[in-house]
Amino acid sequence: MMGTTSLLCLALLCSSMAFTACVAAGLRLELTHVDANRTVEERMRRAMARTRQHRLASTDAVAAPIHWMKTQYIAEYVIGDPPQRAEAIIDTGSNLVWTQCSGCSSSSTGCFDQNLPYYDPSQSSTGLAVSCGDAACSLGSETQCASDGETCAVSTSYGAGDIAGVLGTETFTFGSSEKVTGLDFGCILATALTRGSLDGASGIIGLGRGGLSLVSQLGETKFSYCLTRYDTDTVDQSHLFVGGSSAGLSPSSGAPVTSAPFLQNPDEDPYSTFYYLPLTGIAVGDTTLDVPASAFALRQDSSGQWAGTIIDSGSPFTTLVDVAYQALRAELARQLSGSLVQPPEDGLDLCVARGKVVPPLVLHFGSGGGDLMVPSENYWGPVDDATCMMVFRSPSESTTIGNYMQQNMHLLYDLGNNVLSFQTADCSSM
């Protein structure tokens, strides 16, 4: 973990105020895929590369995955007055809202390249520093008092590495007019991240369960998103909704809704951040895989860390615990035995020629949950002249449902009722 002491000489601002955040009628954010200007084949290869990077990075970390490197969708917004543009990856697997700041531009701090200029707090009339004694400095494990006893420092780790800086409060504007005043965020002054892990974005918008996440700071109990496909020739706008009536699903669409209750999180960090689901089994078409429900259950694994099944907006591809991955691979190989072709890329396991029919998956959720039908295009994707399985073996004893499997579904996180709901949708029309 990177230390923060040396960063404190890089002053963010000169004053502090109590944490407040307000918004009138919820937020609607338009999301852009980070690889929208690339070909379909390039998008798939870059997503696979990020998946492989994450798997390597995770083996030396805790068993529960932190899906920084797999994030694919970014939100556009502005910070401060006068406004400064920024872009952030949306991530249900972390809490902190953060962006790189102007002090980051020194090569000695190891900050990464981004598409937009660094946020400069000295140019904003609405930004304030958060002091060590401010209530906001005790909202999460990502913050702590610095050694000077005055500054609220920020430091946290992801699968891709570490970030550090100071906590500030600012005005954030989403869309054309949805303004959030007094939002606490990390003004990041040093990073030690795997090269290319953010693909040009300025930072992250955390949507996890912690006190510093965007959802928690707004005091909302519902948020939803609908992700357009990124394996097509064009990538349409996706949307994230936080609070307000727009965060709900559309009963008038006629599309069925599948719901599953969230499990009770462990208290330990970082496991308290994640959204765990009661996955009990998987079927390929009409054939249920011979995998015990305990393989997906929330439990302490062989190393004493917590493992389970996590839903994550920041992970491109689904990763299955090994026993489930092997069973899925074997059943698909059996059903597609006459159609399999040589994989065109390293790291791919099963491929068929373009146009071949692949059976859907069915995810079985227990504890009163329903069955979610996953169409073949949500777990197989185009690579050169083939279509290949985009589900991978997990580097830990956890299973993660990634955003490729969530495309063209409207997902509603109802934290008040502790339920996640899925509804098939045309996300490009929302």
UniProtKB/TrEMBL annotation:
Molecular function GO terms recorded: aspartic-type endopeptidase activity
Pfam family name, one: TAXi_N
Cited InterPro entries: Pepsin-like_plant, PEPTIDASE_A1, Peptidase_aspartic_dom_sf, Plant_Aspart_Prot_A1, TAXi_C, TAXi_N
Keywords assigned: Aspartyl protease, Glycoprotein, Hydrolase, Protease, Signal
Signal peptide: 1-24
Alphabetized SUPFAM superfamilies for the sequence: Acid proteases
Peptidase A1 domain residues: 73-423
GO BP term, pick one: proteolysis
Family: Belongs to the peptidase A1 family.
PANTHER family in UniProt: OS05G0375700 PROTEIN (PTHR47967:SF83), OS07G0603500 PROTEIN-RELATED (PTHR47967)
Protein name from the UniProt record: Peptidase A1 domain-containing protein
